[in-house]
From TrEMBL:
Protein species of origin: Spathaspora passalidarum (strain NRRL Y-27907 / 11-Y1)
Protein name: RNA helicase
Signal peptide span: none
Boundaries of the shown chain within the full protein: 141 to 392 of 644
UniProt lineage: Eukaryota, Fungi, Dikarya, Ascomycota, Saccharomycotina
Residues spanned by motif Q motif: 25-53
Domain DEAD-box RNA helicase Q: 25-53
Similarity field: Belongs to the DEAD box helicase family. DDX3/DED1 subfamily.
Source domain of life: Eukaryota
Domain Helicase ATP-binding as annotated: residue spans: 56-245
Length: 252
């Protein structure tokens, strides 16, 4: 649904930044991990959408990204494909405090995706499970308005890619159940909606917790349907030497 593949190559694409990697045209390895390519094939995605064509090489190339594209343009794959692919290749990161007495309570995900609502994080989680099939990556989802005890028990079984709403994630950080010190990929999806819903303080707090430049060398990706002033400011604060990608007509 959502994607019209007919006039696909007519969609205007704007890319700017330093040393922009060349877009991919197919879901074939490289740069994508062979297991991920198998999982994409199983899901019957035959070719990448314009957002995915650009975002995959930008992210696998180690760059930060600000991507603007309308709803239904395939932004979820745009971040999940390169993040999962690189995660498959690198394997789990060592846990920094593994010797601490109570450290087994705490989980150290290597990828974090934030989105504004329960519905959106649940959708992203479902896709993540599908594309992480048969890999070492265990996705988890947390959101407010649901039993936190159950979410904590689930995280306890393993949490490599965490999909979260900002408020519930802040709760779990305060309870010491999650550490963001291992985060290698930080994704803000529907960034404009998160700001509209008043999540900016929680987001800034969480991004600070991911800031371990010497330890994890984090990459940050922002996705948004629109590009208003407050999103531009957030991009300026969170992203380093980023590539700006805009697909289709994008409002501000
Ligand atoms: P957005 O986040 O930009 O609104 P989604 O990532 O939710 O878009 O994708 C919209 C729909 O298109 C979903 O149903 C998704 O499964 C499907 N889709 C995404 N990428 C592809 C692709 N490369 N080939 C076929 N369908 C796709
Ligand atoms: Mg989306």
């Amino acid at each position: 649904s959502g994607i019209n593949f007919d006039n696909y190559d007519d969609i205007p694409v704007e890319v700017s930044g330093n040393d922009i990697p060349e877009a991919i045209t197919q879901f074939t390895a490289p740069p994508l991990d062979p297991l991920l390519v198998e999982n994409i094939t199983l899901s019957r995605f035959t070719k990448p959408t314009p957002v995915q064509k650009y975002s995959v090489p930008i992210v696998t190339g180690g760059r930060d990204l600000m991507a603007c594209a309308q709803t239904g343009s395939g932004k979820t794959g745009g971040f999940l494909f390169p993040v999962l692919s690189e995660s498959f290749k690198s394997g789990p990161a060592p846990i920094p405090e593994a010797t601490g007495t109570f450290s087994s309570y705490k989980k150290y995900p290597t990828a974090l995706v934030m989105a504004p609502t329960r519905e959106l994080v649940s959708q992203i989680y479902d896709e993540a499970k599908k594309f992480a099939y048969r890999s070492w990556v265990r996705p988890c989802v947390v959101y407010g308005g649901a039993d936190i005890g159950e979410q904590i028990r689930n995280i306890g079984k393993g949490c490599d890619l965490l999909v979260a709403t900002p408020g519930r994630l802040k709760d779990l950080l305060e309870r010491g159940r999650i550490s963001l010190s291992n985060i290698k990929y930080l994704v803000l999806d529907e960034a404009d909606r998160m700001l509209d819903m008043g999540f900016e303080p929680q987001i800034r707090h969480i991004v600070q917790e991911c800031d371990m430049p010497d330890v994890n060398n984090r990459q940050t990706l922002m996705f948004s349907a629109t590009f208003p002033r407050d999103i531009q400011l957030l991009a300026h604060d969170f992203l380093k030497d980023y590539v700006f990608l805009s697909v289709g007509r994008v409002g501000s």
